[in-house]
Structures are given as structure tokens and as C-alpha cells.
Amino acid sequence: MEKVSEEKPNSKGRLPTWTLQDFEIGKPLGRGKFGRVYLAREKKHKYIVALKVIFKQQLEKHNLHYQLRREIEIQSNLSHPNVLQIFGWFHDDERIFLILEYAARGELFKELRDLKYLSEKHAATYIASFARALAYCHEKNVIHRDIKPENLLLDLEGRLKIADFGWSVQSRTKRHTMCGTLDYLAPEIVENKAHDYTVDNWTLGILCYELLYGVPPFETESQVNTCKRIIKVDLNFPSTPHVSAEGKDLIRKLLVKDALKRLSLQRIVEHPWIVNNADPSGICNEGH
Ligand code: AMP
């Protein structure tokens, strides 16, 4: 939906920009920290999108407007089937509007809540998609650093979409305040040590566990105890028959305290559990 492709530059030589009048606004899809997300249809091409509305006052209050601009630029340059696309943005006096690819099935974690846990085929398809998308981003020197499960969305066909790229400061605050959980943090972050892109590989291990068992591996009633379990890598597997030895092997190879020893993204997609279970199309219709 490239507006620029059919339009000519205006008298100032600038390409035309979007305005709110270009869209019909539909139902609200969700609420974030700085505004709301609505279903919307671009009037001319009848293209369905998600319109994210961010209040400038809120952004400025948290001093995040420069960060938003940078992140929009980064995300606009990414093109991968598992990275949520930004088509463009515009603003009025009070608000910034992001025109986003519509993820019709919403949050992956809503699906997990409904199904309680996922089958190995279902989980492996998401993990493979996630690993490929991260490998693509790392290749482009884009490091998410702070992927949060609530930022994983699903399109109509069940394809995983990573959203909110690089909103690291905002999304971490969001998770702590919204959910009061530290479950996805890597030990080096909990211990406040230097960390790099290998935290993403840890995150994949936590996600894989939670998708298969319905709960994150180091969950406790208190944040202090969760931190202790993360630092010790106190990993246990419930004795459920639906998870194979290969699935547990992959999780064990990702939840490794020494960041350098975590399985690389390339080796994740070559792991037998992924090869034997993930749907190569990346599409998941189980439970639908
Ligand atoms: P956010 O402000 O990005 O945290 O979004 C708030 C909520 O809106 C999310 O948790 C989703 O449920 C929903 N949402 C955000 N972006 C999209 C999208 N592109 N397509 C569908 N739903 C979305």
C-alpha cells in the first residue's frame, strides 16, 4: 500500500503524505501505553490496516519522541514475512498515527490462553518463524534486545509477526507495570551485566517452553524468587507426554547461562525438533 507509487510530487517537490481523511476508522483492536490501535480501511485502495494512535503529549512526557522516529525508520526498512510491516505514518497537532500491517488474529498469547498449551507442531512453527525473523534482523544489524510475548501477533492465516521493533525501554516498562513479571529476562539482564543480541536466543527458549507447557519456566509468586531461579537456571520439565525429548533438548540448549554457548539462530532452525515439527510455510491453523 505505497501511497507514493501512484501520486506525483507536489509543487514543493515533496511526496504526498497521508492524513486521517484517507482512512475509515473501524473497531478498536487494543490499547497500548501511549494510545490505541484501531482497525482501519484506506479509502482509495480499500486496504485494511491497523492504525496506531500515539498521543504526542504522552511521548514527550516520557521523552520518547526521538526514539519513536528512529524506530519507525528502522522498521520501515525491514521486510520479512514475520516482521510486522509499517506502511507509513502521519501526524496532526496532538497525535502520531502509524499505519501498520493488520494482524487479524491478534496476540499470540491470547491464542495460548485459549488453548492452554500448543502442540509441538504448532509451537515449532512459531519458534522457527521467530528464529528466521531474528536472523534476518541481526543480518541487518537490527537488534531487538527486548522481545516481549505481547509483541508477538498473528495474521489471518496464523503467521507470526514480530511487532513493536526496538521499543526496548518502553516495552520493558510496559511489561513490568502491566504484568508484574520478569519471566522473559535473560540472567545477564537480571544481574545487570552487559548483554547483546544473544538475549534473543534466551527469549526463544523461554517462549518455546511457555508455548509447550502453558507457563514460563521460572515462574514463582514473587519477583525475587523468579530472579533467583533465572540466575540459577533452575529448569524443570513437567512430566507431560505431549513434549518430546527433542523439544526439551532445544529448550535446554537455549536456556544456557553462558550467553556464548546458547544455540545460534542458524542451529535452531536446523535442530531436529524444528526440522521434524515446524510447518515450512510458517502458517498455523491448528485450533482454528
Ligand atoms: P501496542 O500499543 O502495540 O501494545 O498495541 C496494543 C494492542 O493492540 C496489542 O496488544 C494488540 O492486541 C493490538 N494491536 C496492536 N497492533 C496491532 C496490529 N498491527 N494488528 C492487530 N492488532 C494490533
Strand order of the largest sheet: 1-2-3-5-4
The poorly predicted ranges are 4-11, 166-180
Just give the CATH class of the largest domain.
Mainly Alpha
Q: What share of the residues does DSSP label as strand, in percent?
A: 15-25%
Could you please say which CATH topology of the largest domain applies here?
A: Transferase(Phosphotransferase), domain 1
- Overall pLDDT: 86
Task: Describe the main β-sheet briefly.
Answer: 5 strands, antiparallel
Radius of gyration: 20 Å
The outline comes out as globular
Can you offer a commentary on this structure?
- The protein folds into 2 domains: 15-100, Phosphorylase Kinase, domain 1 (2-Layer Sandwich), CATH 3.30.200.20; 107-277, Transferase(Phosphotransferase) domain 1 (Transferase(Phosphotransferase), domain 1, Orthogonal Bundle).
- Helices cover 39% and strands 16% of the residues.
- It is built from 12 helices and 8 strands.
- It has helices at 3-6, 56-61, 65-76, 108-115, 120-139, 168-179, 187-190, 199-213, 223-232, 245-254, 265-270, 272-277, and strands at residues 23-31, 35-42, 47-55, 86-91, 95-100, 106-107, 152-154, 160-162.
- The strands form 2 sheets. The protein has a 5-stranded antiparallel beta sheet with strand order 1-2-3-5-4. Strands 6-7-8 form a 3-stranded antiparallel beta sheet.
- A hairpin with a 5-residue loop joins strand 7 and strand 8.
- Helix 5 (120-139) runs antiparallel to helix 8 (199-213) and helix 8 runs antiparallel to helix 10.
- The relative contact order is 0.13.
- Residues 4-11 and 166-180 have low confidence and may be disordered.
- Adenosine monophosphate binds next to strand 1 and strand 6.
